[in-house]
């Protein structure tokens, strides 16, 4: 079977009509490969601008990563661009045999948007004004206030998430109070008072039997409820009690609380050791409701992200969060990490790399936190002018790269190389703290504060009782 294709890019008219033999040329042979490279090296204008981590200049890539053969091969065809967008551009140029003429956005506005006078800026404006053919920075597939563009085949889908400042470290003196949930502390206090009240009821019951059978009163039979509660607290804390019961029913109650003392004291000591030896942090913002209650504004430098919570959403939470959106003339991400007075918007797939390469402390702790609830999910693709005649050819090639898994491989390889480079640099610049360390007096300072506070209160009560007792004695005289 014989097929004929017209290729207008060959200079010689005799070579513009290509003949394919199905049995021969469509097999994996060099003949078919040469005939399918139909662009014949013609230049195609591509707008690219640096964006970490999807498009990086050659010098920004780790040195070890630049030595990989396929990275060098794609970067050479993409004029020195790396990352997912750069590698895809380079491999498309090789696969379709065109020359990539890369240029930055003419006005430096990167993705671009529509102005109030209905003109467009950035790479979007360059595309609509015929200064470029393809914008090779992957972007969200949504409406950009114009019907003059269309999207190529989607590369991948991604969530649009909120990054909040990472919660601060809990001070050492406060850590022991926050090592248990407030419900646990409440239960511990209630158990002590409830145990004292049970002991008091048992004594009242035994006193009736003593009076009925005219038995002798024993030590502690007439003890008050407050005294018994204190005694029960002593038992729970592992101290000795001055009112040891002699009656079997009271001893049974005391044995139960002695067993509880073993469990509570062991758990308490283990948790305190963990609180002293490890660093703990306040709770992060993990829901959009918690983000709304925090009253932190949400900053972004891209006007196209202002619809993250929808334009006409009936959800009151989304309406409240939409009112917190702010356009910043600086990096919202940098401000959220260092000034901690704003949140920012990022793609979920980029967050891991961004935090681990740009916003991580020397001890390995991140400076930003990803809110678990992400309000939007988008597909991402490149844009061309509507009706661009080469779009079907680009779509077919991109489809093959996506379905073969190469796009995700290029992204993951770049991400891993950048994270390893950053971590190795940190290890060389500063030694890490040892995983195990000795407890010092600074770790135990809270116990001395509590002891000092108790002694101060006791001394104050002693002074008050001394003067009150003296006044009562004088009045009696």
UniProtKB/TrEMBL annotation:
Q: Where on the tree of life does the source sit, at the highest rank?
A: Eukaryota
Q: Where in the cell is it found?
A: Cell membrane
Membrane topology value: Multi-pass membrane protein
Any stretches that span the bilayer, and where are they? 173-202, 223-246, 252-276, 447-468
Q: What is its main location?
A: membrane
Annotated keywords: Cell membrane, Glycoprotein, Membrane, Receptor, Transmembrane, Transmembrane helix
One GO CC term, this protein: plasma membrane
Indicate what this protein is called per its UniProt record: Ionotropic glutamate receptor C-terminal domain-containing protein
């Amino acid at each position: 079977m014989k097929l004929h294709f017209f290729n207008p890019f060959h200079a010689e008219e005799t070579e513009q009509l290509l003949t394919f033999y199905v049995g021969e040329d469509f097999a994996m042979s060099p003949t078919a490969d040469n005939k399918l490279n139909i662009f014949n090296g013609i230049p195609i204008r591509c707008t690219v601008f640096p964006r970490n981590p999807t498009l990086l200049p050659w010098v920004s890539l780790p040195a070890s990563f630049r030595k990989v053969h396929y990275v060098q091969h794609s970067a050479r065809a993409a004029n020195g661009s790396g990352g997912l967008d750069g590698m895809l551009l380079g491999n498309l140029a090789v696969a379709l045999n065109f020359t990539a003429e890369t240029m930055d956005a003419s006005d430096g506005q990167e993705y671009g948007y529509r102005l109030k006078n209905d003109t467009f800026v950035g790479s979007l404006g360059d595309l609509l004004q015929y200064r470029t053919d393809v914008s090779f920075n992957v972007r969200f597939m949504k409406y950009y206030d114009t019907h003059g563009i269309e999207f190529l085949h989607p590369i991948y889908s991604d969530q649009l998430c909120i990054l909040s400042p990472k919660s601060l470290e809990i001070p050492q003196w406060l850590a022991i109070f926050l090592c248990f949930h407030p419900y646990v502390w409440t239960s511990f206090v209630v158990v002590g008072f409830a145990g004292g009240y049970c002991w008091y009821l048992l004594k009242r019951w035994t006193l009736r039997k003593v009076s009925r059978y005219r038995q002798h009163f024993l030590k502690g039979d007439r003890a008050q409820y407050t005294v018994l509660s204190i005694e029960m607290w002593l038992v729970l804390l592992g101290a000795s009690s001055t009112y040891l019961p002699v009656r079997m029913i009271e001893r049974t109650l005391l044995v139960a609380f002695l067993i509880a003392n073993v469990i509570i004291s062991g758990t308490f000591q283990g948790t305190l050791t963990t609180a002293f030896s490890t660093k703990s942090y306040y709770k992060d913002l993990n829901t959009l409701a918690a983000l709304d209650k925090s009253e932190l504004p949400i900053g972004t430098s891209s006007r196209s992200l202002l619809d993250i919570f929808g334009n006409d959403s009936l959800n009151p939470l989304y309406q409240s969060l939409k009112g917190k959106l702010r356009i910043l003339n600086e990096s919202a991400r940098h401000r959220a990490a260092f000034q901690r007075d704003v949140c920012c918007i990022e793609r979920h797939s980029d967050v891991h790399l961004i935090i681990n390469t740009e916003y991580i402390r020397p001890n390995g702790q991140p400076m930003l936190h990803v809110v678990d609830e992400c309000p939007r999910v988008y597909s991402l693709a490149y844009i061309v002018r509507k009706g661009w005649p080469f779009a079907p050819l680009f779509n077919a090639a991109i489809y093959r790269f996506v379905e073969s898994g190469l796009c995700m491989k290029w992204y993951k390889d770049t991400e891993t190389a950048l994270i390893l480079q950053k971590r190795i640099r940190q290890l060389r610049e500063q030694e890490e703290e040892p995983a195990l360390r000795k407890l010092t007096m600074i770790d135990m300072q809270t116990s001395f504060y509590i002891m000092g506070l108790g002694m101060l209160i006791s001394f104050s009560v002693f002074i008050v009782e001394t003067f009150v007792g003296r006044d009562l004695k004088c009045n009696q005289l």
